[in-house]
Amino acid sequence: MKVYRLRDHGSLDNLAIEDAPVPEIGSHDVLVRIRAVALNARDLMMVFGPSPYGPKPGLIPLSDGAGEVIACGSAVTDIAPGMRVVIPFRPGWIDGPFDPTAIATDLGGAVDGVLAEQVAVAARAVVPIPASMSFEQAATLPCAGVTAWAALDRGAPVGPGHSVLVMGSGGVSLFALQIARAKGSRVVATTSSEAKAERLLGMGASDVINYREYPAWDRRVLELTDGRGVDRVVEVGGAGTLPRSMAALAPEGEIALVGLLDDPMSAISPLPLMRTTGTIRGISVGSRADLVHLVDCAAQNFAPVIDRVFDFDQARAALAHLASRTHFGKVVIRA
To answer: Which of 76, 199, 209, 263 has the fewest CB atoms within 10 Å distance of its CB?
Structure first.
């Protein structure tokens, strides 16, 4: 089979395609013929490094893959060849509260990922996908989609009558917009582009704030919510935007802290959070159970936004496109 390996960090030139033997499967595993993989910002960290796990020459990158089962281990009874499945980002976290030791199973980082024609994975981890969902759509869900799901579904309930703030048009934010709308919540979004503002409105945002026009966007959030603020903030900026997120929070609202894109070393005062008696909750992707719920929600309510689909032999070009930050929606490679 064909597989991509990252020979070193620092350049896309270090990503090479090569021949490799088909993975062996254990008695409790399945072999999946990968049909589509999706890219995340994390994958650029792995390529350009250094990765948070330290250099690992020979790593098979990328975490998000979907395909069809082509072989099953001898102890597998509830999955059969031909089943269409998506693979969780963190196969070791099946359900329940977060277990930090499961991070050691993160695909495309701690262990080899899915940028290969075939991968072996524990049978208990894979999630069936409905016939109405394409492999390309399913592949977009495990990292950004599940992160957005955990930001909205874990913690305090979000539903009709609630309001959610999403930041920008990255993968997590777009999924958070779609999931929040599927749950019946109002969505306020921020962006720096009028063109993207139109697309966000078209996806169901009730209001979009151009943060170049309104640098104090938290005040604009309060204006749009009659001074109350939003019940949930899907915070992808981190420390640099967190003070404004706290100021935009409704009484007893919650900030789901996803990212650290903006000034991660900034000092932050907790006083705004004390004023609203709000909560900050850290997000670390999610479990297989979260992926199951997300697949069901997407199948019934929305189609993931896909910017562009590349062929398998164009993996470098796909990553370069992601790095250009000109995309709107997920970048996918068809295997």
So the answer is: 263
